[in-house]
Amino acid sequence: MEACYALAGLYLLVLAGRIAGESEHPRRWGSSLFWALLGVTLIGAKLLPPTLIGYLVVAMVALAASGQVRRGAINEASRDERLGHAKRLENRIFWPALLIPATAVLGTLVLGQLHFRDVWLVEPKQVTLIALSLGATLALTVALRTTGATVNIASREGSRLLQTLGWSLILPQMLAALGGIFAKAGVGEVVAGLVTQAVPTEVPWVAVVSYCGGMTLFTMVMGNAFAAFAVITGGIGLPFVVLLHGGNPAIMAAMGMLSGYCGTLLTPMAANFNLVPAMLLELDDKHAVIKAQAPLALVIFAANMILMMVLVYRF
Amino acid sequence: MIKLVGVALIAAGFTLRVNTLLVVLAAGLATGFAAGFSLNDIMAMIGKYFSDNRAMTLPIVLMLPVVGLLERYGLKERAEVLIRRSNAATAGRVILLYTAVRQLSISLGVSIGGHAGAVRPLVAPMAEAAARRRGGDLSPASVVSIRAHAAAGENIGNFFGEDIFIAVGAILLMKGFFEAQGVNVSVWAMALWGIPTAFIAFAAMWWRCRLLDRRIEHAATIDQKPGGVH
pLDDT tens for residues A135-145? Predict the structure, then answer.
């Protein structure tokens, strides 16, 4: 697993070197340093003391906030050139792209099963990431052969996409760190306390409403339904829905988690699902994905909550 | 109550559109200080959680060279050619089909797709091409709407399919939580009760995709009227 991170980290260091060498780049040193630091944190996560990584993260934030992380002059291939390649390669261009999901399927089926007694070749919970890394590497190899491009072109195109994303690439990790601090500081207990004080949870359906609402709201604050689950289920779900009113814990947990996911659809805190895609798709409005998801989230939330009200006390 | 200062900072910072990374860092520092941690404690926490969540960044970084390369060699353009051959394809249907594949595969434990690996290089361009084939040139607003819905389809499929498979994060986390609390809950029951909402989520996506198609069609008919907005 560490090898995958080292690979990604090395690639970032190479890109940092590339950017430092681009004489026409508007902020080449700042940008280069930013990507190099990210590479170092990827490689050194298990080697360097966390406090040092914390300060490196602060340095990255400072670079980004002071406008040092910019995209360079990017020479994208013209549409004609791309159309020409599309005509020449026809459907062969899809094979590398399809290799990634194919490796994911095979990897999940095979890698996850390989073990000698209790020693697993790949830890089951890391199978997805490892299969993905393998798939990406394999796909790159095949893509280089199919297109006849050099490694240099691939690295340059990767750099183009990376600079399209810019500093928002580290937002998800940053927000996860904030969620961690929230959890350590006990923000969850404060929120759960406020909800239980404000709402008459001794009425069974009100308990369901405040549990589902609490999951959604707290997920929006934390950007992460998993973090919300322990706090809100421990603070509202288990004591009121299950213990006081005799609800079914499996139904409560399954649907409670899904209420949390509705919150994930609504919050910029869940940057990897909502903001990074907006950058990847080159949308000027960073919140366009959230706006598209808002009606969906509200409908699913309402239906899910009604389902829980009907089912949780019945089974 | 003072511990909520970070939440307030986030809300204020996002509203005022201050650099998001800076807002997040400030919120982390403020919350940490409010809870009585020292600066070095907070730095250690940031470093630890930042590292613990490397997995969020990894797939995108590893996917960049291959996606960039394929884009340069006409992946999007070829996807558009294929879509133009299909009479039934609309933006909404392309997105809905992707959502279905994503939701089904992840409910069987296989994670395929993703924003970097599928939505940007394949789904969004195909949906746009389908819309262009029907309605001619698209307004910038339609393009944004199509791309945003493609990303939404990825998220809906991913979130509401995942909870049906027992060996993934969500179910294992819930199981672990209940075990720590001394409550015995079967993973199968939790997976089973995720199914009704999975269907609701897909139905909601179907509704949004139909609406998206109608809106695109509507925008196109306004455009075609003489004297319409061009």
Answer: 888 888 888 88
Determine, for residues A187 and B196 on separate chains, whether the beta-carbon distance falls below 8 Å: no
With CA atoms as reference, the chain A residue closest to B172 would be A125
CA distance A58 to B29: 11
Give this prediction's pTM.
0.82
A291's CB contacts (< 8 A; 6+ apart) are A285, B148
Contact between residue A34 and residue A13 where contact means Cβ atoms under 8 Å apart: no
Q: b/e string for B192-202 if b means 16 or more Cβ within 10 A?
A: ebbebbbebbb
Q: Which residue has the tokens 């949390």?
A: A260
Task: Using CB atoms, pick whichever of B61, B121, B201 lies closest to residue A8.
Answer: B61
Instruction: Identify the band that residue A252 occupies on the pLDDT scale cut at 50, 70 and 90.
Output: very high
Whether residue A69 has pLDDT greater than 60? yes
**Is the pLDDT reported for residue B226 higher than 60?**
no
B38 touches chain A (CB under 8 A): no
Amino acid (one-letter) located at B171 = I
CA distance B137 to chain A (A): 16
d(CA A3, CA A137): 12
Q: Name the most confidently modeled range: A144-148, B188-192, B208-212.
A: B208-212
How does DSSP classify residue A120? E
Cα A220 from chain centre: 15
User: Taking all residues of chain A, what is their mean pLDDT, rounded to a whole number?
Assistant: 86
For chain A positions 152-191, those within 8 Å of chain B (CB to CB) are 153-162, 165, 167-182, 184-187, 190-191
Tell me how many degrees the CA angle A204-A194-B15 measures, rounded to the nearest 5.
120
